[in-house]
């Protein structure tokens, strides 16, 4: 998440606090409101294993919406 151009005159103010969340939604680290850089090493095995538990590819409903992924032809 990022807030590159906050408009303090707008009705909604988007504040900093950019963050990195793992596939289980654990947040680490989180930036402050001020300008900051956030680093996080991601474990690809954790990402792959988490995605295996989310069956989005077997539960798609092409009878309700078209296949726009380009994989189906």
Essential attributes:
73 residues, two-stranded antiparallel sheet, 2 strands, little secondary structure
In short:
This protein has one helix spanning 44-52; strands at residues 19-21, 27-30.
Tally of structural domains: 1
User: Which range best describes the helical content: under 10%, 10-25%, 25-40%, 40-55%, 55-70% or over 70%?
Assistant: 10-25%
Low-pLDDT stretches are none
Radius of gyration: 18 Å
Average pLDDT number: 78
Q: Based on DSSP secondary structure assignment, what is the total number of beta strands? A: 2
Query: Separation of termini?
Result: 33 Å
Q: Shape, please? A: flat
Report the order of strands and helices: EEH
Biggest sheet overview: 2 strands, antiparallel
What is the strand arrangement across the widest sheet? Answer: 1-2
Beta-strand content bin: 5-15%
The structure class reads: little secondary structure
Count the DSSP helices.
Answer: 1
Question: What can you tell me about this protein's structure?
Answer:
There is one protein chain. The chain is largely without helices or strands. It is built from one helix and two strands, in the order ββα. It has a two-stranded antiparallel ribbon with strand order 1-2. The model has no long low-confidence stretch (mean pLDDT 78). InterPro entries: C-N_Hydrolase_sf (IPR036526). GO terms for molecular function: omega-amidase activity. It comes from Aspergillus sclerotialis. This is Nitrilase family protein Nit3.
């Amino acid at each position: 998440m990022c807030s590159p151009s906050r408009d303090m005159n707008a009705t909604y103010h988007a504040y900093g606090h950019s963050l990195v969340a793992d596939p289980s939604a654990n947040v680490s680290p989180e930036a402050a409101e001020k300008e900051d850089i956030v680093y996080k090493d991601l474990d690809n095995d954790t990402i792959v294993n988490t995605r295996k538990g989310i069956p989005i590819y077997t539960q798609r409903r092409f009878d309700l919406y078209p296949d726009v992924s380009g994989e189906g032809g």
